[in-house]
Design a protein that fits this description.
The chain is elongated, with a radius of gyration of 32 Å. Helix 7 runs antiparallel to helix 8 and helix 7 packs parallel to helix 9. Helix 5 links the parallel strand 5 and strand 6. Helix content is about 45%, strand content about 15%. With about 325 residues, the protein is α/β, with parallel strands linked by helices. The strands form 2 sheets. It has a 6-stranded mixed sheet with strand order 3-5-6-4-7-8, covered by helices on one side.
Length: about 325
């Protein structure tokens, strides 16, 4: 170890020991050889292994960042929901994607209806009163599960003291992969809460809630298939939906009897309420007929139509809930 002397201004010499540093110089010839090899590989159309390894590593990092972004955005949507004071998470389910029912001729793309939102699960949050279970939502949820990969979750709000067991499992059993939000396309969160009317939010940060089962049903049905382009047919669908909720579900016995006669007349001309195709009108009217207790006394055409609806299989969550 070499010794160096430094003479300070005030006088005496000070000896400082400095370590001997060894530096490893790069092998210029090896680098030149590697450079020539890389140039030769690029000339032959081959990919440099080092570059390929870097690309693989970058893809893996991007994949992990995507998963992290999806998880964080999903948590942010839950935390910023006004109904974040959830007491009990009951169930989650993952439905395997399968072709949608042949009753729908056209299908809807989520990006078209909800807007493109890369890396985030599209959460639909619904507040429902357990005293008035929304049967139409259970049917539409079943249809959505055939079209998309749906993460279905049920919560109980602190405003509700007791919820029947069948309402806690109406969206299906918990799935083992429910924690991996990035595997799903659509989030369907049902919160049993003391509310006067059904409420739904899609974008919890900047969207006013949609109120009323009829309006929420219209929103969800548009995720399955476009509304009829014919204005007269679209108006007919809306008319039946309003009739179902305002007269069958909430009307007097005379109003319900009048609606049943109208249903019987319409179903005498066509297999479904709006013609030859199954629509939201059939879902709404079927659920309201069952919920009002009018199914057993319904006319012949209505009885036949009820059996046709049940044969589709999408109505089993609603019928099981009423048993």
């Amino acid at each position: 170890m070499p010794m160096y002397q430094v003479k300070p201004i005030c006088g005496s010499d000070i000896k400082i020991d400095l370590p001997t540093c060894m530096y490893k110089l790069p092998n210029i010839h090896a680098q030149q050889g590697n450079s020539c090899t890389s140039e030769h590989a690029l000339q032959n159309g081959e990919v440099d292994p080092a570059v390929r390894a870097l690309e693989v590593r970058q893809d893996e990092i991007m994949r992990k960042l995507y998963e992290l972004k999806a998880a964080v955005e999903g948590l942010a949507k839950t935390v910023t929901t006004p109904d974040a004071d959830l007491d009990l998470t009951v169930s989650s389910s993952l439905s395997s994607q399968s072709p949608i029912s042949t009753t729908f001729k056209g299908v809807t793309d989520l990006d078209t209806v909800l807007g493109k939102d890369l890396g985030a699960l599209r959460d639909i949050v619904i507040n429902a009163n357990p005293a008035q279970p929304p049967l139409t939502l259970l049917v539409l949820h079943s249809l959505l599960c055939q079209r998309y990969r749906v993460l279905s979750t049920i919560h109980v709000h602190s405003s509700v003291s007791n919820v029947p067991p069948q309402l806690l499992s109406c969206l299906g059993p918990r799935h083992a992969d429910s924690y991996a939000r990035q595997l799903f396309q659509l989030g369907f969160t049902l919160i049993w809460k003391e509310v006067p009317k059904l409420q739904m939010k899609f974008s919890v940060q900047n969207m006013c809630p949609i109120e009323g089962e009829a309006n929420v049903a219209r929103f969800l049905f548009k995720l399955l298939t476009p509304y009829p382009s014919d204005p007269a047919l679209a108006t007919l669908v809306d008319n039946w939906v309003d009739t179902a909720f305002f007269q069958l579900a909430e009307g007097s016995s005379k109003e319900r009897a009048a609606v049943l006669r109208s249903l019987n007349s319409a179903l005498g001309r066509n297999p479904w309420l709006t013609g030859s195709e199954f629509s939201l009108a059939d879902i709404a009217c079927y659920c309201c007929v069952l919920q009002s207790g009018s199914a057993s006394s319904a006319p012949a055409n209505v009885q036949r139509w009820i059996k046709s609806c049940e044969n589709l299989g999408h109505f089993s969550p609603a019928t099981q809930l009423l048993k």
